[in-house]
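2024-03-11 09:14:02 INFO worker-7 job=invfold-0412 stage=load source=structure_tokens
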């Protein structure tokens, strides 16, 4: 999401006459786009900011700005911790960046107003050249999960008009992009006029040149039959769903306000797997949420085993100001959270390895993206299930090609292949 936003910011500033540089040391303006989802993300930003402050003190006229969710989340604390900032702008203020930059003087320019309608729909982000492009189709979130700061920093849910999405997709296809990833905080909540997410998938699938379509992240509660049907009937929509579950305990799911029980979630998984037999699934897990006890945690491990996710993103619960769970505080110590995190990671590694091993000998269609590690003589790409595949370089194979490959060995994170 932040990469996509940075591409929008780049497009806005380029229109205003700015150009980009890879060398921060020669930049007149340095903007840091930030995440506020966990405290750890914020700490890293503060670390980076103090590095950049050195570049600024070497050239005081150089402008240093902070963008994104952290700007929105705790601007007051930020201005204290980083008083040398010239500019602070939240996720709905990017159109005003040229103006804010022009005005910034002794006092920092601050704009963190949330805008219920801003989608940047008319702007073509400055996409990087590549095989895959991420197209934002909706912004914000209305779910208000108890742990999550997103609705407060990115504001209410709003969808990009379908016409703007299609224009973007056609432009990307014309540039040789093969895979489109539709992006949104709760992407399957997309609705614009009469068009829901299933219909949007069908419309994007009709674009010539686009070979693969993915989306992230859907919310389990918005996974309607219409979306599942579009996945079944549109071969371009790839058999992979990232379906954040957060916890395997019904008590914790209720406290989190996730809007589903483990039973409902598992039934959804079953429906998806029946409809799409070669489906890969991944998830997000939080350990150590307020009041999570051993029994709750064991239920999470149990659910991970039951589903058998292909991969997972796993996090220690981080208390975030403004959220509903903030006032509840932390009941699980950091040491205990670390123990639980290590345990879910170890379990997931074992499951991923087992699932990937089962693919040895199988043929897979790999969309080639880039050379793998330098000097390895290998190319890297993705299978339809979004697994990383490595295959030997060959003069005829270029990024953007889809090749048949046979899996010869596997780790928890990649498939090593030969050409089939
Ligand atoms: N603490 C830990 N993880 C969080 N996430 C969101 N908020 C928090 C928090 N306060 C995780 C969720 C979400 C993912 C993007 O980040 O798992 O799905
Ligand atoms: Fe946060 Fe919940 Fe919205 Fe996801 S659905 S962005 S976890 S509030």
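2024-03-11 09:14:09 INFO worker-7 stage=emit residues=420
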């Amino acid at each position: 999401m932040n990469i996509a936003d940075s591409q929008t910011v780049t497009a806005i500033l380029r229109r205003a006459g700015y150009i980009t540089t890879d060398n921060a040391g020669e930049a007149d303006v340095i903007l840091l786009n930030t995440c506020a989802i966990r405290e750890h993300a914020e700490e890293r930003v503060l670390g980076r900011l103090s590095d950049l402050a050195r570049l600024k003190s070497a050239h005081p006229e150089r402008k240093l700005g902070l963008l994104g969710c952290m700007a929105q989340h705790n601007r007051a604390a930020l201005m204290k911790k980083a008083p040398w900032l010239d500019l602070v702008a939240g996720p709905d203020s990017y159109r005003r960046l040229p103006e804010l930059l022009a005005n910034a003087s002794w006092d920092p320019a601050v704009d963190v107003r949330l805008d219920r309608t801003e989608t940047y729909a008319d702007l073509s982000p400055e996409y990087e050249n590549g095989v895959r492009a991420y197209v934002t189709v909706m912004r914000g979130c209305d779910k208000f999960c108890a742990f999550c700061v997103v609705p407060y920093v990115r504001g209410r849910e709003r969808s990009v008009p379908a016409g703007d999405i299609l224009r973007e997709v056609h432009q990307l296809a014309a540039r040789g992009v093969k895979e489109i990833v539709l992006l949104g905080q709760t992407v399957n909540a997309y609705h614009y006029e009469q068009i829901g997410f299933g219909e949007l998938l069908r419309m994007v699938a009709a674009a010539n040149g686009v070979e693969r379509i993915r989306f992230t992240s859907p919310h389990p509660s918005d996974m309607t039959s219409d979306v599942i049907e579009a996945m079944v009937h549109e071969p371009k929509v790839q058999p992979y769903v990232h379906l954040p579950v957060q916890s395997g305990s019904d008590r914790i799911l209720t406290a989190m306000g996730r809007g589903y029980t483990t039973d409902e979630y598992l039934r959804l998984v079953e429906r998806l797997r029946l409809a799409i037999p070669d489906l890969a699934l991944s998830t997000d897990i939080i350990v150590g949420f307020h009041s999570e006890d051993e029994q709750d945690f064991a239920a999470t491990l149990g659910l991970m085993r039951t589903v058998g996710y292909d991969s997972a993103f796993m996090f220690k619960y981080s208390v975030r100001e403004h959220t509903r769970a903030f006032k509840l505080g932390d009941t699980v110590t950091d040491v205990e959270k670390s123990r639980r995190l290590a345990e879910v990671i170890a379990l997931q590694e074992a499951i991923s390895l087992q699932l990937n091993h089962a693919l040895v000998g199988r043929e897979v269609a790999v969309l080639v993206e880039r050379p793998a590690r330098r000097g390895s003589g290998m190319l890297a790409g993705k299978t339809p299930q979004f697994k990383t595949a490595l295959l030997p370089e060959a003069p005829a194979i270029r990024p953007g090609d889809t090749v048949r490959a046979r899996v010869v060995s596997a780790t928890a994170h990649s498939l090593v292949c030969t050409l089939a």
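2024-03-11 09:14:09 INFO worker-7 stage=report msg="Residues 63 and 284 are 37 Å apart (CA to CA)."
2024-03-11 09:14:10 INFO worker-7 job finished
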